[in-house]
Design goal:
The protein has seven helices and two strands, in the order H-H-E-E-H-H-H-H-H. The chain has a domain at about 60-120: Methane Monooxygenase Hydroxylase, Chain G, domain 1 (Up-down Bundle). It has helices at about 1-30, 40, 60-80, 80-85, 85-90, 90-115, 140-145, and strands at about 45, 50. Helix 3 (about 60-80) runs antiparallel to helix 6. The chain has a two-stranded antiparallel ribbon. By secondary structure, it is mainly α. The radius of gyration is 33 Å and the shape is extended.
């Protein structure tokens, strides 16, 4: 029972110390910084451009899809760096392991490519249509011949 309380006490102490550290940082910054607001400081500033119009502009979803695909493959390729540092020690096993990993990444890239996620502008689907056949004259039944 004593060890459980001491473990919870350690967690509580670290939590309290973290809160004190954050609040202390904010209070110290508030005491040290100058406070001289003016309209130029309070205006919206983005990349050297004056903010014009509403912030609720609709962005093309392609920006997000391409960014997510880039992040996925960029993060996965980072896993090859530790492999490269121990390649000589592991030998053929490391090579096969890296080739399987790269193969999975290539399959994922091929899937994204075939699905059309890498195309900036998706083409409109071309659905083939059956051409209209001319109507053939129907046979006249014996009752219509008279």
């Amino acid at each position: 029972m004593d060890t459980t309380l001491s473990n919870f006490g350690n967690v509580f102490a670290f939590l309290a110390l973290g809160i004190v550290f954050v609040v202390g940082g904010y209070l110290t910054a508030r005491m040290l910084r100058p406070h001289r607001p003016n309209p130029a400081k309070n205006s919206t500033y983005e990349c050297g451009e004056e903010a014009v119009g509403s912030a609720w502009v609709k962005f093309n979803i392609r920006f997000y899809v391409v960014a997510l695909i880039f992040i996925i493959f960029d993060v996965e390729v980072v896993f090859l760096f530790p492999w490269a540092t121990v390649f000589k020690q592991l030998g053929v096993f490391a090579l096969v392991d890296a080739l399987v990993f790269a193969g999975i990444l290539i399959l994922g890239l091929a899937y994204a490519w075939v699905k059309g996620d890498l195309d900036w502008v998706r083409p409109t689907p071309n659905i083939p249509q059956m051409p209209q056949m001319p109507k053939l004259p129907t046979a006249i039944s014996t009752s219509e011949r008279g």
